[in-house]
Design a protein that fits this description.
The structure holds two protein chains of two kinds. Chain A is mainly α. Chain A has one domain: ABC transporter involved in vitamin B12 uptake, BtuC (Orthogonal Bundle). Chain A is about 70% helix and about 0% strand. Chain A contains 13 helices and no strands. In chain A, helix 2 runs antiparallel to helix 12 and helix 12 packs antiparallel against helix 13. Chain A starts with a helix and ends in an 18-residue tail after the last helix. In chain B, strands 1-2 form a two-stranded antiparallel ribbon. Chain B is globular, with a radius of gyration of 21 Å. Helices cover about 70% and strands about 0% of the residues of chain B. Chain B starts with a strand and ends with a strand. Chain B has 13 helices and two strands. In chain B, helix 4 runs antiparallel to helix 5. Chain B is mainly α. Chain B has a single domain, classed as Orthogonal Bundle (ABC transporter involved in vitamin B12 uptake, BtuC). The chains are: A mainly alpha, B mainly alpha. Chains A and B meet through helix 5, helix 11 and helix 13 of A and helix 6, helix 11 and helix 13 of B.
């Protein structure tokens, strides 16, 4: 028991929680935005991979870190446009299109990366985001050191969750997005263009996913390698359900999830005799459990996965 | 501009859809090869030669096509019934490790005629179990099986990693995590001497015909297609939905698990965590390229294997990353989706 308490009482754990949660917050908010407008975006895993690669490559070629994030966002937006063209304009199966986008985006990012950065013994690195100290916050007891260990994108993620919560529930734009996700025909009767809303939500949502991926190469690590996203995208899809499609709860879900992840990492080193793979499995199993607990209770956007065609029911 | 459903779809259109989609994907990848500064036609020529230019490469391509045919069939039967089995990769690995476990422990001394069928069966059963879980969660808690079957892929690979680093570890592998080998007697015989091509290819081919027969000529096939076309309609027509989907999951998971078993018994004899270069995920593309038709799966698997095997030699000669094969295969999934759409709809102003 004392091991567990020691781990929970350490500032290092909570600093890691925020760090692990950051890509998940971006990804979950991105997926949430798409789904609120009625489009399931399973391209997330590949889009995060591409964002990680594109952001890293931009910085490697001399761009500054914020430009790197912007490049990732733009690249993500382009894949969002592709997914929207397939699922909104053509009304294809959102499951299969999303998988297609994931397979394409991830293999394309490996291809581009290998083309530009030939295989070498040690992967090339960049200088990642450094932690920032916010004056005032840094002096707080216990919380201070935790916050001082964070890089700017983490603060961006936290602000983004609040911003998205405000936009979705408190603005006309948010109302239009939610209407489109619940009933696009009614939305159109109210003068909303469901096609445009869906395009916008998928493009912006995909840009957020890509920024989440870029956090991995520009802050968490300093290099890019294939398969580095490691299913984080799929975990985000599960977190959206866990969050009942609400940005505030998405933030909570991502933090809770990151807590378990950071906790198991520390437990792994503290406990002997249990294969490390058991610990590595926990994030995926937790996601499945979270899905089972919440799936029945969650309020699914009613038009999720239903293509909208004008004048057709 | 709007889309209007075609009232009549000529057979030629349906048959030409996959080749057209693949041609479009090749043109798009060609652009990528060209931007990399390599001659496009030469690159494709080298891929073709690399895949079929010699006896060795041709048998290698068929060897590579074998697990793809099985994972492709697995995805095709599931998607036909709208069971979104994206867990082929995990089922492949679980099938492989079950085969290696039973083959190296229980059946180590058994003669081939006994151990081969039993090992293939244990691989299939392991795959089934891994797909039954997400299906059960869907029926019980209405959890989308896409996400759960995907997440289980990661769990399955970690289970394999744990076993080959623990109880099933081969002590003679110089500390490298690798499972113990199945007995030589349990290995599938070679189909062509002095090559890696094994009887698994014939098994996969026969299974494609069997699955085709099951889907088109049996009551179960009819029920599973009905469940895919309209679950509500199927229930209304008296189809026991849960039981039908359960059987579909057994068939689909079993085929993907069998792919792992066949790969172990045909090629390696043991399991490592890089046994599959994404056979499960490629199987999804194979199934879609085939239009979910079991016999089309054979051709689509051949195309995919050609790209993967051929890209190796091309990559060495022209300095184009081998990932171009993955890009082309992924693109062909997207172009296929679009092509199928335009085979069903026409553009009206």
């Amino acid at each position: 028991m004392s091991i567990v308490l020691d781990i929970i009482a350490s500032a290092g754990l909570w600093a890691a929680v925020l760090r692990i949660a950051t890509p998940l917050i971006f990804g979950t908010l991105g997926a949430l935005l798409c789904e609120r407008a009625g489009v399931l975006n399973l391209g997330i895993e590949g889009i995060m991979t591409f964002g990680a690669m594109a952001g890293w490559l931009a910085v490697y070629h001399g761009a500054d870190l914020w430009t790197g994030l912007l490049v990732a966002a733009l690249a993500g937006g382009v894949f969002g446009l592709l997914h929207a063209a397939l699922t909104v304009t053509l009304g294809l199966s959102q499951h299969v299109s999303g998988l297609g986008v994931t397979l394409f985006a991830s293999s394309f990012s490996y291809y581009l990366f290998r083309l530009i950065v030939p295989l070498s013994g040690s992967p090339p690195t960049i200088e990642p985001f450094a932690p920032v100290t916010v004056p005032g916050l840094a002096d707080l007891p216990f919380v201070g050191p935790i916050l001082s260990a964070q890089t700017p994108p983490t603060y961006l993620a936290l602000l983004l969750a609040l911003l998205l919560a405000y936009v979705v529930f408190r603005t006309p734009l948010g109302l239009a997005i939610r209407m489109t996700g619940e009933n696009p025909h009614a939305a159109e009767a109210q003068g909303v263009n469901p096609m445009a809303v869906r395009y916008g939500a998928v493009i912006v949502g995909s840009a957020l996913m890509a920024v989440g991926g870029a956090f991995l190469t520009l802050s968490a690590f300093n290099s890019f390698f294939p398969t580095m996203v490691q299913g984080r995208g799929w975990i985000c899809i599960a977190l959206v359900v866990f969050a009942s499609w609400r940005p505030g709860r998405a933030l909570f879900g991502a933090l809770l999830f990151a807590f378990f992840d950071a906790f198991q990492l520390r437990l792994q080193t503290a406990v002997d005799g249990v294969p490390y793979q058991v610990f590595l499995m926990t994030p995926y199993i937790l996601s499945i459990v979270a899905l089972c607990v919440m799936a029945r209770r969650a309020r699914v956007p009613q038009a999720l996965m239903q293509p909208y065609r004008r004048g057709e029911r | 501009m709007r889309f209007e459903r075609r009232e009549h779809r000529p057979l030629a259109l349906i048959i030409l859809t996959p080749p057209l989609a693949i041609a479009a994907a090749l043109v798009l990848s060609g652009l990528l090869i060209a931007t990399a500064g390599a001659p496009v036609m030469e690159a494709y020529w080298r891929i073709l030669v690399g895949a079929f230019g010699s006896r060795l490469s041709a048998t290698e391509t068929l060897t590579r096509a074998t697990p793809l045919m099985l994972t492709g069939l697995a995805a095709a039967v599931a998607f036909r019934a709208r069971v979104w089995n994206i867990g082929g990769e995990g089922q492949f690995y679980l099938g492989a490790i079950a085969t290696a476990a039973v083959g190296s422990q229980l059946l180590a001394g058994a003669p081939g005629y006994l151990s081969i069928p039993l090992l293939l069966l244990s691989g299939a059963v392991a795959g089934m179990i891994l797909l039954i879980m997400p299906l059960w969660l869907r029926l019980r808690f209405s959890v989308d099986e896409v996400v759960t079957s995907l997440l289980l892929n990661f769990v399955a690979v970690l289970v394999v990693s744990m076993l080959i680093d623990g109880p099933l570890k081969d002590p003679l592998a110089f500390g490298w995590p690798q499972s113990q080998s199945v007995a030589d007697a349990a290995m599938l015989p070679k189909l062509v001497a002095r090559s890696r091509l094994h009887w698994g290819f014939a098994i996969a081919l026969v299974l494609a015909f069997v699955v085709h027969f099951v889907q088109s000529r049996t009551v179960f096939g009819l029920k599973s297609r009905a469940a895919g076309l309209s679950p509500e309609g199927a229930v209304f027509a008296g189809v026991p939905l849960a039981r039908t989907l359960f059987l579909v999951a057994c068939l689909s998971g079993g085929l993907a698990g069998l792919a792992g078993a066949v790969e172990v018994l045909g090629v390696k004899g043991y399991v490592t965590t890089d046994l599959s270069p994404g056979f499960g995920y490629s199987g999804i593309v194979v199934a879609m390229l085939a239009g979910l038709h079991p016999l089309g799966v054979v051709l689509a698997a051949l195309f995919t294997a050609t790209m993967f095997v051929g890209a190796d030699g091309m990559s060495r000669a022209l300095k184009i990353p081998t990932y171009i094969a993955d890009v082309t295969v992924a693109l062909s999934l997207i172009t296929m989706l679009v092509a199928v759409f335009f085979a069903q709809y026409r553009i009206r102003r």
